[in-house]
Amino acid sequence: MTSNATKSYLPWVVATALFMEQLDSTIVNTAIPSMAASLHVTPLSLKAVVTSYILSLAVCIPISGWMADRFGTRRVFSSAITIFTVASILCGLSLNSPMLVAARLLQGMGAAMMMPVGRLTIIRTFPKSELLAAMNFVIIPALIGPLLGPTVGGLIVHWLSWREIFFVNVPVGVAALLLAYRYMPDYHGDTSRPLDLIGLVLFGSGTALLSWLLEVFGEHHLDVTSAAILLLLSLSLLAAYVWHARDALHPLLRLTLLRIRTFRVSVAGGFVTRLGVGGLPFLLPLLYQLGLGLPAWQSGLLMMPSAAAAMGMKFISARVLARFGYRQVLIVNTVLIGATISMYALVGAGTPIFAIVALSLCLGFFNSLQFSSMNSIAYADIDGADSSMASTIASSMQQLSMSFGLACGSLITGWYLGDMPQTERLPLTGALHHAFLTLAALTAISSLTFWSLRRKDGESISKGGPVPAEPGK
Fold it and tell me: Any idea of the CA torsion for 10, 12, 18, 20, to the nearest 10 degrees?
C-alpha cells in the first residue's frame, strides 16, 4: 500500500529530475560560443557537445525499462540522478573538448534513465483515477525546460561563465537524490527477463544514427549522397529491429503493445503532433531576436508566459477531460494549437507586446493540455505488468519525435529562406512567417490521428473506475 507521503512527494521528485534533464538539453546551446573561446576551438567543433548528449539518450532510453525491472525503480532512478549530477560537475571542470564530450555522454546516460523510470514509478504508484493529476504535475518541467533553457543559459554566460551552466545542476541533483531515497518506491518486474542484446544493437544504433542526422542537419557540410546513405542505413537498422522483435521471446521493445488502441494513438499521435510543435523552440527565438531585433534577454522573457500558462493548465485539465473526453479534447485542441501557431505569421516589428504575450499564453495552455492528454491516455488500457515496457516505448518515441520536430522547423525555414541572406531582417522574417504557417498546417492535420479514438476511451483516467466495453473493442 502506497503511503500518502509518497503520493504527495513522488511527483515533486520526478518533476525535479525531469526539469533538470529538460533544462540541460537546451541550456548548452547558448553557451557554445563561450565554450569555444575558453577551450580554444571553433564553435562548430563543439557541436559534438550537443550531439553526444542526444546520442547517449537515444541508445540508453530503450534499456531503462529492463534495468528498472531488474534492479528496482529506486536504485535505478537514484543512480541516474547521481550519474547525471557527477557528470554535470565533470562537464564544468573539463579542460578540453574531448573531456567535455565524454562527460556529456555520461550525462546523457543518467538522463536516459530518469525520464522513463520516473514516469514508470508514477504509473505504478497512482491508480488510474489519480494518474491524470500526477501526470499534470510531472509534465510541466518537460514543457518549460526547453523554453527556459536558452534564457537561463544566456543569463549565466552573460554574468558568470559557461561552467556555471553545469554547476547549477548540482544543488538540484542533490535535493532530488535526497527526496528519491526517502520517497521513491522500489518496484521490480514481475518476472526476470534477459536483456535483448541483438535488439539493443539494432534499435540503439538505428536511433542513434537517425538522431545524429537530425541533430546536425543544416549545420555540417554533409553532401546529399552521404546523408541519404546514412538515412537509409538508420532506417534499415530500425526495420531490422522490427523484424527481429516479431520472433524474439523477450524483445527490447515489445511492439505488440501498439495493438492497444489508446497506447498506439498516443504514441503515433504524439509523434506526428511534435513535428509541428517541436520546431517552435527553434523558430520563436529567431523571430524575436532576428526578426524583431530584440536582445536575448527580452526574447527569453517573451517565452515565460507559455511556462506560466502551462502551469495554470493543470488546475482545469482534469475537468475539461472529464467533461468532453479524450477524443474530443485531442481533436479540437490539436486544431487550436495549429491556429495559434499560424497567428505568429502576423507578428512583426509593429506588433504590440501584449499581443505577443497573449499568443504565448494561448500556446502554453494548449500545448500543456495536449501533452498532458496524450501522455496520460497512453496508459489507460495498459496493465501493471506492461507499464515498464510501455513507458520505455513511449519515451523512446518521444525522444525521436523531439529530434524530428527541431529538424522539421530548421528544414522548413531553410526551404523558404532559400538563397536569401540570413542577416537581413525582412527576408528572414518572411521566411519565418511562412514556416509558422507550414507548421500550423502540419499540426492541424495531425489531429486526424486522434479520430480513431472512441468516445469512452480514457475514462478510466479522466473519470476513474472501470469503463464498460464498447462493441468491437
Answer: -140
Q: What is the pLDDT of residue 168?
A: 81
Q: What is the pTM of this model?
A: 0.78
C-beta of residue 447 within 8 angstroms of C-beta of residue 339: no
Joined together, the cell numbers standing for residue 33 give: 560560443
Choose the weakest-confidence range: 8-17, 262-271, 349-358.
8-17
How many H-runs (helices) and E-runs (strands) does the chain carry? Answer: 20, 0
The identity of residue 282, as a single letter, is F
Q: Kind and range of the H or E element at 286?
A: helix 280-286
Dihedral sign for Cα atoms in the order 320, 323, 327, 328: negative
Rounded Cα distance, 246 and 119, in Å? 26
Query: What is the pLDDT at residue 417?
Result: 67
CA distance 473 to 457: 10
Q: What is the chain's alpha carbon radius of gyration, rounded to the nearest angstrom?
A: 21
The three cell numbers of residue 90 are: 565533470
Q: Averaging pLDDT over each range in 52-56, 166-170, 197-201, 251-255, which range is the top one? A: 197-201
Which CA distances in Å does 341 have to 27, 148, 332, 334? 24, 19, 14, 11
Over residues 6-17, mean pLDDT: 80
Buried b (16+ CB within 10 A) or exposed e, 240-254: bbeebbeeeeebbbb
